[in-house]
Amino acid sequence: MSRGTEAEPSDQTSTGNSSDRKRFPVVGIGASAGGLESITELLSHIPSGSGAAFVIITHMEANHRSELVQILSPVTSMPVLEATEGAPLEVDHVYVIPAGFELSIQEGRFRLWPRNLKSKIPFLPVDRFFRSLALEKGEAAIGVILSGTGSDGTLGVSEIKSAGGFNFAQDKKSAKFPEMPLNASRSRAVDAVLNPRQIAEEFGRIARHGYFRSTSSEEVNQEALLLKGSVYGRIMEIVRVGTGVDFSDYRDNTIRRRIERRMALRHAQTLEEYSVILENSGDEIAALYRDILINVTRFFRDSEMFDALKSTVFPEIVRGKTPDNPLRIWVPGCSTGQEVYSIAISLLEYLEGANVAPAIQIFGTDLSDSIAVERARVGLFPETISAEVSPDRLARFFTKDDQGYRIARRIREICIFAKQNVAVDPPFSQVDLISCRNLLIYLSSALQKRVIPAFHYSLKLGGFLVLGASESIGRFTDLFQLVDSKNRIYSKNSTLVRSYPHFTNMNPSIPALEVAAIRERTPSFSDLQKEADRILIHRYAPAGVLVSDELEVLQFRGKTGSFLEPASGEASFNLFRMARENLFSPLRFAVEEARKLGRSVRKQGIRHREGTQMREVCIEVIPVRLSESSRGGFLVLFEPLRSGIEDKGLDASEEEVATFSVVERDEVEILRRDLEHTKEYLQSIIEQKAASNEELRCANEEAISANEELQSANEELQTSKEELQSTNEELTTVNEELQNRNLELVRINDDLMNLISSVKIPIVIFGTDLRVRRFTPAATSLLGFTPLDI
Q: Which pairs with CB-CB distance under 8 Å and at least 24 residues apart come from 648-654?
């Protein structure tokens, strides 16, 4: 996505009643030679009660007294006034710029500046007013370019388009001097080219559309919810199929306002109506695509940032560079190339002062190929850039021709432009500097989390990242270190983090759903804990433990000391080793039964000793599973059933013992011996199992070690794959650039051959070795040349 000149206009107004003021449309009308007749016709057809203010900006001599107020008053029912310093703009009024002044608006009021007659910068009052109009009114700004000479207004309509406003230009047939509207149209920022009467009628239809109505935050939220519905999804799908670009992860507010803007131009009142227009019109899909991309920028935007590059960044990245180790710079979202060429000019100025000459590669990429990248490759800009570029730089780095200013060849040769979607395409590698200003503000937070780590991967260690004034790296403070907070300059940190979403799930044979299923089959401890919490909330909260499938205790819940205690010897959290002696057998039987049946098992009436007290305890074992195919664990609960009573079974008095018969005493002794043997046998089983577990643990550790080695090798392969993808992307970009230059050379060669074959003068062209290279047909008869002489 291309960047705009500023952040979203809706974020740039002051608080208070700024929302109402922004919804109040202001129409800026720019004209020059032959514009009076066009202005008169336009105003005479403006519908009454349009709810807008109109400001007329014309080119007049500084000492010439303006008669526009007297001339225009009879042709419109609206009051016509001359703009004065500090005067507020009012609805259904027409304002005229006074002679000898430049005009702008700020906080709903006019600001006047006397024209500097000694300045070498061209007088461009339309551009200046349109820029202030875009900043002040944003989406409620409307620009109209009528008859005139020159290119004043061309940059201004681009600013208005970036802010979400509307632009109209007079058609060639009705304009006495069509140069001004033609130059504005070439900027691709004009929505319609019409005659003055048609412009007035079109404005009347747009003014009646709901685009300019004042909306509360609640209404905006309702609209956002509506746009998130199926109709919005269908519109996004139509754009994705028609352009190959998925805008679903871009900021909703930006996309929403661009859709509403196109709805106003196509006179669609609902999303359903507009979706039908999109389905039936490929031109409308392209128009919406261009609106979303916002291909607007300018030369040396934020001059302080370029000063910071010269003082902070360039000295670091130039150090140690040689012709074999080129200086590499990447500008994603380069739009029509002004940012790329500005950095190239600043870098060459620094290198001249530093007296070094390393090889330079500057990559400019943008999502818009035919709209932005092609214009950047041509390197031709209107004359109005003289307001942005100093006369010295114009003379050194540009050449003047009839169409405007063309970038110098030495600048053009170090700049490579290509189409690239920074959100999904592999980034460039081994880059020294990335300038990504005012691109992230149009991306959602989810998309920013993919793009910023990709920038980290692309940069060399110690490389620099430059962001816009309203942007930051967010939570990625481990990847970048802030170098200059004012100019948003960051340097790359060395980190072990390797989370580059461009290369996530690159294997097409593993669908996303299957990847999710694989993750589901390996639940984490936190997942088991949440499932256990859900079970307990719906039932009760007795003392218990959460254990894994291998019966290792993961979490203690409540007071479990009466039922479990650490076993002597090596520390272990195994449930059976921690169970108190008279709970071991019932606990084991309950766990095995629950594992076999796959459901909860409850054992009641278990006598359990607590000191000198005997209690009846209920043990319940509940399997915990996140899915049928996943391994889980068990939730073991201990619930006392009644209060303890004094145990006299083993400490009976002599009188009680005397009441037993001899047979009864023998039976008790036999049972005691059997119990002791059983305990010994069980203890041996436990020890054998512990030994087996130890062997399995060693084998598992060996498997883990082997797995880590395989993971390390896999990571190295993944790194090589990423580097190959980045190299391939760079080769594709260079190949595309060479193809374009080859086509240009073919065209030049064809022109030269046509010229040689048609000229009637004998001409012979020699090389430095005095060998014949070309000659005209007239030279053939005069000098006797043949094609074999070449």
A: 649/614
Tokens of 664: 């009864």
pLDDT in tens, 634-672: 999 888 875 544 444 444 444 444 444 544 665 566 567
| Cβ proximity of 454 and 422 under 8 Å | yes
Task: Give dist(CA 39, CA 28) in Å, integer.
Answer: 11
Two tokens, residue 262: 């196109």
3-state secondary structure of 437: coil
**Could you give the CA distance from residue 728 to residue 736 in angstroms, rounded to a whole number?**
12
Catalytic entry in 2, 38, 59, 291: 59
Distance CA 242, CA 254 (A): 20
Residue type, position 275, single letter: S
Reduced to 3 states (helix: H, G, I; strand: E, B; else coil), residue 574 is strand
- Pick the catalytic residue from 32, 158, 346, 368: 32
59 is catalytic: yes
**In terms of pTM, does the model score above 0.70?**
no
Q: What is the DSSP string of 328-355?
A: EEEEES-TTTHHHHHHHHHHHHHHHHHT
CA distance 135 to 557: 60
Residue 527 has a pLDDT of: 64
Distance, in Å, from the CA atom of 376 to the CA atom of 335, rounded to the nearest integer, reads 7
Separation of alpha carbons 583 and 348, rounded Å: 83
Q: Residues 713-755: pLDDT tens digits?
A: 787 787 778 778 778 878 888 888 888 888 888 888 888 888 8
Sheet holding 26-31: strands in order across? 80-82, 94-96, 53-58, 26-31, 141-145, 166-170, 192-194
Kindly name the residue from 152, 191, 425, 432 that is annotated as catalytic. Answer: 152
Angle at 34 between CA 29 and CA 35, to 5 degrees: 15
- Is residue 152 annotated as a catalytic residue, yes or no? yes
What is the Rg, in whole angstroms, of the alpha carbon atoms belonging to the chain?
40
CB 570 within 8 A of CB 679: no
Cβ-based neighbours of 452, under 8 Å, separated by 6 or more = 440, 473, 474, 476, 479
Give, in order, the Cα–Cα distances in Å from 432 to each of 287, 331, 460, 500, 727: 36, 11, 6, 19, 16
- Tell me if 102 sits within 8 A of 112, measured CB to CB: yes
Neighbours of 639 (CB within 10 A): 15
